[in-house]
Every structure is written in structure tokens, then in C-alpha cells.
Amino acid sequence: MPRNKTKKSKSKARDTGGSADQSQNQNTAPVSAQDQALLRALHAFIVPHEAGVDGNIQKRKDDLDQKVSGPEAAMLIAELKGFMSRLTEQPTVPEEIKIKVELEKAFEEPENEYGANAESPEAITHEPYTSFKGWFLEQLHYRVYNEMPIRLLSFEQHGSIFEIKLLERNDIMALFEAKLPKIWELQFSSSVPLNYLAINDCVQYLTSYAILSHTWLRSNPGEITYSDWINQRFNTNDAGYQKLNKFCQTSFADHHISLGWMDTICINKDSSSELDESIRSMYRWYQSSKICIVYLAKTSMISEIHQDPWFTRGWTLQELLAPDYVKFYNRNWVKFDEDCQNDKPYRGGHNLLDPPCSPTIMDQIQHATTISKDELLNISIAPFSRRMEMAANRNVTREEDMAYSLMGIFNVSISTAYGEGSKHAFLRLLEAIFYSHQYGTLDLLNWSGLYESNFSPSSRILPSNPKVYTSRSSSIILQAIKPFEVLTMTSFGLRIPVLLMPAKSAKIHSSQFKARGNYSARVPVKYSYGIKTYCLLDSTISGPDQFAKFEKRKDIFQHTFAVFNIEQRNGKIYIPQTCIAILLDCNEDAGKVTSTGTVEHVRTKEPIVFKMQQKINVETDQFVDVNKDGILLAEDDLAKHGMQLVIKYL
Questions:
Q1: CA–CA separation, 175 and 156 (whole Å)
Q2: Quick one: which H or E segment has residue 613?
Q3: For 559-575, what is each residue's pLDDT tens digit?
Q4: In degrees rounded to 5, what are phi and psi of residue 303?
Q5: Number of CB atoms found within 10 A of residue 505's CB
Q6: CA–CA separation, 609 vs 443, rounded Å?
Q7: What is the secondary structure of 485-551 as a DSSP string?
Q8: Nearest C-alpha neighbor of 293 from the set 271, 272, 316
Q9: Three-state SS for 25?
Q10: Where is the composition biased (Basic residues) (predicted)?
Q11: What are the pLDDT digits (tens) for 418-455?
């Protein structure tokens, strides 16, 4: 289809007198094809006249008189008329808006069994319908069985009665198929024919559903479950039914939607396979919804939104991030902001259907979550450690849900296994991220912790939960870095390539430290008891020791910085300007550390981030910060600078 569109635009350029080159330029020019035609007409009329300025005045006057009555003038007048007409005409309405208007008009008309004036499906046998129907049904089938929830609430107003039903996928499919004759009627009668490019828009519109984000009732009786609904074990006066009814009525009245999803009633939690599918699909279901209605049961005023418990729950993070459209309602089911259709930034941009988000509510969201407008627009721009930080202070009822609720945010899927414990569930989440993403996974090591409970039982450098990511460093960007190889969990720990840089720390003047090669760094490290500054790659670490007389002093420390944000480029090792490292206590000599050798992870209060320095004066040992291009070294040259590349199990 895009190919045909291109041909059409080129044909139009030829009709207005443009060359092939001019036609190609129209795609990037700031003016339309019609306006370019006007400019060409002006050029044809004026330029030949100006070319004769130096000639005889009478001749120029005769030429001008001839041009005024000639074809150039006629072309110029026609183009000027068109230009003036375009200045006063109404703005073009996008095709998707026309389709929406036509569909709304069609489905507001009274229906007979098969639609307003439509034939029955059996009566329609001509080939175009068969082709159209097949394509439409294919798109519809994919949407219902792959992008929509397992079951949905269906609700309609019949006089004074508001009817609510619970539909399975097959029922949902049948509901949409019944509307096909009316769509076919629209195909022939509408001023906006439903071409194949528009079928997807049509399917999206027909299958629109609202989705609820809320905190569960703690009272008894509480929420209405799937089992309660099937067995009719509920009272319409109970708070659970009132919430369900209000959600359906709000979706219908405020958003003109007759389908909805609510986790309490639409998931059969007695089925472990259905519960597993629902949890793994939850992010996608919120993402595919037409509108996410957020019900803040504890809040009445817009200025108090940030205090609502909704912002403290683990599952509601993805429910805020996933949908394109979100609308916040207070405890009485009244919109906090009546003027805006959307309370969060819309990632698709703004047009007639997408007014700007509410600035007041946006401020409240940022106050409650620290999530920026850009992050709300597109969570994929946020580094992995930042996404973990967003979840750090949230709570869940089942401990494993702290990991399960983050699957969609990292675009991974893991099976659910309640009873495995939060640490094991979180470790499996990290493993899935390592295997699913080529870039950015090193950022999951951008954290620090002082206590044993902070660490995974399977690794000395992986955390046991998202809470530790509040210590992440925002001064380093790791999202664009691709590790040498996929980070892999083994029985020995996380298998990871690191560049070892031995270092010494002592209360000795820095002039007594001498770099072994051309690179060094002075790095302050924050411990629970204070800060110690290390000098990296000092010559005394291997070789004659200038500090022999200080060896008995307790303020001398020798540790190894394991830099992990390194890359392999054209067979060489790339060391960036800004490095991030893990602090190790190696039992082996500097430069002779092995993959399986015993090392201890030294815990620090903050991630270790520092800038490498390069020697610029050999005689004075003067160093400056490495430029933004970083350092590129052959692996054979690492040793002469005191570095060692090794794959460790940490």
C-alpha cells in the first residue's frame, strides 16, 4: 500500500509541470505540491522578464505586454486562484477521524437482525465481500485471541436497566461477527470507503474496551470474584458490586465503551493456567485498552492525589505505564479533571482526538512516583536500574508479585510459581532480562548494598529485590552498552567479563603514587563508616614497593576495581571515559587473577563510578581526564598499563 501512495504523489507532481527531480524534492520541501506549482508559475512569468533588464526599454515593455496576454500569465492566474482558495478552505480531517465518525453514525442507527439495511450474510455472495470479510475476520480473530483479555464485561443500557454480562473469548468474537453486515453496508454507502489499510483502524475501534486500575477492598464481603459471579454469590448492595457497577457505567457514559475488564472478576483464579496467562499478559492487556480508568478510593481532591495508596502498590506501576490513555476518578467516581480526555502524556502525539494531558494531575503523578513526563511517554527510554527504582518503594500482598508485576515493564515473560519466594522469583526475572536484551543489561548491576539480605543467594553482585536500586547512580549511562557475551547465571554465580584495575588507598600524599602505565584514576569509595580514596593502577602494586615502610599501618588498603562497562570493538578493548566498577578483594597477585580464583566482593554504600585519567606528560606524571571517546587498547597491551581482562563468576 505505501508503494501505491508514492506512485500517486509522483504522478501528481508530473501533472503540475514538475520534473522527476522536483517530484522527489517535494517529499522533503516545507511547502506543498500545489504551492510549488505556484512558485514555478511565478518563476516562469518573472525570470525571463528580468533577464532582459539590460536591453531596450521599449522591447522589455513589448515583451511584458505579450506575456500578460500569454500562457504564462494564464498559468500564474490559475495558480494564484488556487492558492487563495486554499487559504480559506477548512482544515483537512484525518482519515482515521472520518472512519471513527462514520462508524459511530452507523452503529447509532436502529438495527434489524443483520443491520439497518443490510442483507443477511448468506445473501451476500459476491466476491468483493468474500475478500473483504476474510481479511476483516482475520484481523478481528488475531485481535480477540492475542491482544485482548481472556474474558470481558459487556454492558448496555436498556431503558432504566443497566445490564452487565461476563463474556468469554468465543462470545466476544461472535458479538463482533454479528456487526460485520453493518460494516459491509458502510463499505458501499460511506463517503469514506473502508480500504484494507483502514480495516485495522476499524477493528481497533470495534474492539475498544476500558480497563480498571484500583486497589482491592479489604472489607468482608470484598471484591466480586469470577466464582462469585458465576455462582451468583453476591449482593448488589455490597461495596464490591457497587465498584463493578460504577466502573461499567462510567466506561459507558463517559467514554462510550460497552466492554470492560476488571481483574477481580475477569480472572478465574481457581485455574492455575489461566492465572499464569493473565499475569504474563497483564501489561499487554493494559496497553491494548482504549482507556484505563484509575479509581482512587481514598481521595476526594485533586491536590491529594499523590497521597493515595494506589501509588504504593506493586501492580499499579505497570497499570500507569502501559496504557496510552489514563483517566483518574475520585472516591465518588467523578473525574478530577473534566477538561482533559487523557491524564498522562500520549506517546502517539497530539491531534484532534488527543488533547494535551492534565498538567495538574501530571504534577501529582511526579510528586507520588518521581516518574518524569518523558518516562511516562515512553518507558523504554528509562535505563533498567531506573525502572527498578520506580518499583523500589511499592508493596505487594504475595511476595513473588514484586517480580511478576515487573515482567511487562522489562518486556519479558516468566512462569509464575507462587511459593518459590521473592528472592528466587526476582532472580528468574533478572535472568530473563539478561537473555532477552542485548543492550542495557549491565545497568542491572548499577546498585549497592551493605547487608546480606540485599544480595541474591545465587550471586555476590546481584540484588535480591528492587528496593536496593534507590542507591543507583544516575551519572552513568549503560543502556547503550552491549556486554561481550550474554550475562549468564551459573552455580558459581553470574558469569561476567571484567577489566581488573588494582588500586591502593592510604593516607599518603598523592605524589608518592606513580602510575604503572599511561592510565590512572583517583576514586573515592563510600563505606558505611566513611570514605576512602583509591589510586588505580599504581606501579607499587606489582614490583618494588615504595610503601614497604607503611605495610604495618592499618590505613593502607589494596583492592581491585572490576570495571564491567567495557566493550569489544574491532578486536580491541574499549574503556569508556566514565567507568562503573565492583570492588573486589583478590587473594591472587595483581595481573594473575583467574576465572575460578577466590575473590570477595567488598560491599560499598554507593555504586563506584569514576572517570579514567590519561598521562599527558611523562616527565611530570601529569594526568587529565580521558576524553569522551574513551580508551581503545589491544588485549596484549593491557598488562603494561597494569590491567587484566578476565571472566569471573561473581
A1: 13
A2: strand 613-617
A3: 899 999 999 888 899 99
A4: -75, -10
A5: 19
A6: 12
A7: S--EEETTEEEEEEEEEEEEE-SS-GGG--BSSSEE-EEEEEETTEEEEEEETBGGGSSS-TTGGGT
A8: 316
A9: helix
A10: 1-11
A11: 999 999 999 999 999 999 998 999 999 999 988 878 88
